[in-house]
Every structure is written in structure tokens, then in C-alpha cells.
Amino acid sequence: MEFGVGYFPTHDGMRPGEIARRIEERGHTALFFAEHTHIPASRETPWGGGRKLPQKYWHTYDLFVALTAAAEATTRLRVGSGVCLVVERDPITTAKEVASVDHLSGGRFEFGIGSGWNREEMANHGTDPRTRLALLGERVRAMREIWTNDEATFHGKFVNFDRIWSWPKPAQKPWPPILIGGGGPTAEQRVLEYGDGWFPQWHDTDVLARIAALRARADRYLQFQVLSVPPDPKALEQLEAAGVDRASVWLPSGPWSVVEPALEKWEKAIAELVGR
């Protein structure tokens, strides 16, 4: 099992390239950046992490700008989105950004995707929250057409374009791993329909049992990665036994003096697991 970290790349914290370089130097295999274009000031949608939404949610750099900086600062580290809110993005533009980061990084990009939880945020992008999951699937399928065809065409309910040219193509073939985030009741079906793996949070209900069930249903190889993993060797042991490919912890946003102690706790848990 590999180990990684997740991070909100805020303008008042460690720069994306700086944290990527340190993560790579310490032997971790992947760094995932969160995405929010904004947070509506009049938000009514409850946040699952508590009553008060942390400020980092509306202070992040643009996802693909941060990922480019992280990729340029490293040579081996996998860089990814944890997760990209595809329902808030134009699919042609997003396909270009994914392919660009993957090409510039030499094939080190991992495309974690999700539909988001903030209904007001997605509505500001013109997305109807009631149809966001259908929209997500169409946009992913449209992007796959762009990545794999010299001349791409797509016609769906939400996405339509005739005969377009878009380069570069991703370095990874046929595309960077598409990791489906979310732990709702239809998450597994989305993985089976258009994903290359599942990317749930540790606190999602019955995640270990659901991983086993999804693996049994799949007719192809799937990646299993878990975010929000606590720095606890017992949790890591459970994930390893479940055949999870990578476990990642969220680190706090801020300067190195804030990030390093949390990273050390994570590394201590890893050392205890590996040393058993």
C-alpha cells in the first residue's frame, strides 16, 4: 500500500510547489489538492464536517494552477485532484487542463472527480443540483472522447459539440486515472460506468465492506484509494488488509510550522504499520 497526502493549497499557506517538493523528499507517493472556485456567502447547504466551514475552502488557488506548480517542483510525485468539481467546469476546458498537466508532468496526474456537496456553489455555475450526477457522467465521457480522438465529437443531454481538435493529449493512455470520489448510495455504480477507481473518504459509511463488494462486482481492474485517513496504524492496517492501493491524510493548510507536525504524525503511523 502506498501513502499520500491531501492539502488545500491556500494563498496564505505553503506554496503548492514547496509542499510538493517536501512531500516528495519525504518519500510519499502522491499529493492531492482540493478545489473550490468560491464559497457563496449566503450558503445554506450544511457542511458534513461541522457547523463552521473552515476559511481554507474559499482561499485556495485555482486547482490546475496549483497542480502545475506542484508538478514542476517534483520529478516522481504523483499529483492529483482531491477532488475536481467537474459539475462546475466546462468539459472542453477541463479536458485541456487535465491533458496539459499530465503532459507537462510526464504522466504523473491522477484525476479525482466529484459532484460536490455545496448546492449554492454549483448553482452559481449554472448547474442544477438535481441533475448534477447525470451531468458529471456526461462531462467525463465527453472528456474521454477529447483525450482519445484526434477529432472528437460528442452529443448528449448536457454536452454537445461537433468535430473539435484539442491538444496536447494526456501522456498516460488512454487517459489519467479517473478516480470517482464520494460515498453516496450510487458511488459504486458511477465507478463501474466510467471510472478507473474509487476515491472515498475514510469516514464514508462501511467503506471497507463497500470496497470488497465493488471489487467483486467489477469486470476489470479498479484502483482503490481512500482520503481523510486518520494517522492511526490500526486504520492503515485495515486499509492494507482490504487491498487499498493508497491511503492519504488531509494536512492542515498553513506554513511549514503548521504542516510539519501533522505530517510527522502521519509518518509515525506509517512507520508503526510498516515495522510490524
TrEMBL record:
Its EC number is 1.-.-.-. Pfam families: Bac_luciferase (PF00296). The keyword Ribonucleoprotein does not apply. Residues 18-220 form the Luciferase-like domain. Keywords: Flavoprotein, FMN, Monooxygenase, Oxidoreductase. One of its GO terms (molecular function) is oxidoreductase activity. InterPro entries: Lucif-like_OxRdtase_Rv2161c (IPR019921), Luciferase-like_dom (IPR011251), Luciferase-like_sf (IPR036661), SsuD_RutA_monooxygenase (IPR050172). It is an enzyme of class 1 (oxidoreductase). Coiled coil: none annotated. This is LLM class F420-dependent oxidoreductase. It comes from Paractinoplanes rhizophilus.
